[in-house]
Design goal:
Blueprint: H1 11-18, E1 40-45, E2 55-61, H2 67-71, H3 81-98, E3 104-109, E4 112-115, E5 125-137, E6 141-151, E7 154-167
Antiparallel strand pairs: 1-2, 2-5, 3-7, 4-7, 5-6, 6-7
Length: 169
Amino acid sequence: MSFQSKSSYDYDELIDCAMGRLFGQGNAKLPLPPLLMFDRIIHISDEGGLYGKGALIAELDIKPGQWFFDCHFVDDPVMPGCLGLDAFWQLLGFYVGWTGAPGIGRAIGVGMVKFSGQVLPQNRKVVYRLHIKRIINYNIVLGTADGTMEVDDKIIYEVKDIKIGVFQK
């Protein structure tokens, strides 16, 4: 069965991606839970976004019992900032796989990260917004984007020039 692009993906389809069933074996995969940092992609397009080159919006439902609250930190639970940052790499890798680029994505950098808030057990929803800046698909595949992470409608993370590379085994 070959990949058919869509404009949104539910949780089961994200798990299919993690298992190598969405884009095909040897191509882009997401991590399995608990490291999968979003529950659904509600919008993905190769048009729009701040740069007119594509956009992706994903959501994570916050539940007080999520694994990271139990260990980060005892008596002061907060979602680790690195998990929010990793979500941007996961999403950009998904986007590049969605464009049809063959190979496996790897995080290769970020130009700037700004934290201005935190995710706590009493929060309800995280929304990631990714604005594609550039996809290079020649001898190598590179993706670059900017993004924001909101918790309960307030922007708390900003990233600039997040980058992934796609490599073939």
